[in-house]
Amino acid sequence: MLADVAWSAAFLISLAGVLLASDRLVAAVEAAGDRYSWPAALVGLLAAAGADGPEVSASCIALLAGAHDVSLGVILGSNMFNLAAVLGLPIVLVGYIAVRRRGLLLNGGSMLLTTLIAEAVVLGTIPPAAGLALAAGVLGLYLYLVVQPGTLPALQRGTAQVALLAEAGDQVLEEREREREADTAQGFPEGIALLWRGLAATAVIVGGCDVLVNATLYLSPRLGMPATFTGTFVLAALTSLPNVWVAITLARHHRGAVLASAVCNSNTINVVFGICVPAQFIALKLATVVRQIDLPALAFLTAASVALLWQSHGLGRRGALAIIVGYVVFAGVRLAY
Fold it and tell me: Is the pTM of this model over 0.85?
């Protein structure tokens, strides 16, 4: 009884610490982007990487603990949860958001390709080394394209940026520009301070995820949860909570392109660093339920989300609801299985 109370307290404390540290890490990345004038797309990619710290860390820690079902479940479940709760839910609440097809082709295309590559690695269709090389090639090409001037809609700094922001009526970017001007006047945080903030936040994320995973592995059998359910639904949803709040804020300000990019980048990073990289060192053990339900569901929901965004030059409530219903159907089939 005492052990159950101790693990429950550890679960709640570690969850709070991971969520707070993830927020601090993303803030440090954004501050570094302002200080060193990194391209907006690069800042967004790094911020997505920071926000994905809990998912990737939880997956790797579970894998090292021998809980393969939980490890794969965190990544596969997080990606499907992201599509339903991080992309679909905010649009159901707020309404239609616009997305440029040029940006969707890059962000959605990289997400779909890396998802299929990771699934091929899990299924053993391609060797882990080849899968990582392909995924790294996709990521490298993506990074090259987003930092090239004129490849994607990008904002130039200075007076031209302020004029464009005013014309677009983008409240979020206007606020970011005002914050940047204030930081310029007061002096940016020192680079070494930002580095230490990032390292400290990363250490809390990794350590917190270690406790979170072990607490979940201890408590879930006592609650009658199978291992695959624990990773696919419990840890997947908990580690994605920071992304949900950020997504709702972006949708409220009609930042459709940023919202879609954040979801796509998050899913891409999850499968590359949560599946392709660990597969180089540990042979992944694939449960039947993952092969028959999880992998096909993730591939279908990913492709359907990109298709819906492409067809309507964005996503409205009807399309968002379709994505959520798809996730609910998956959850129902999974639980019935």
Answer: no
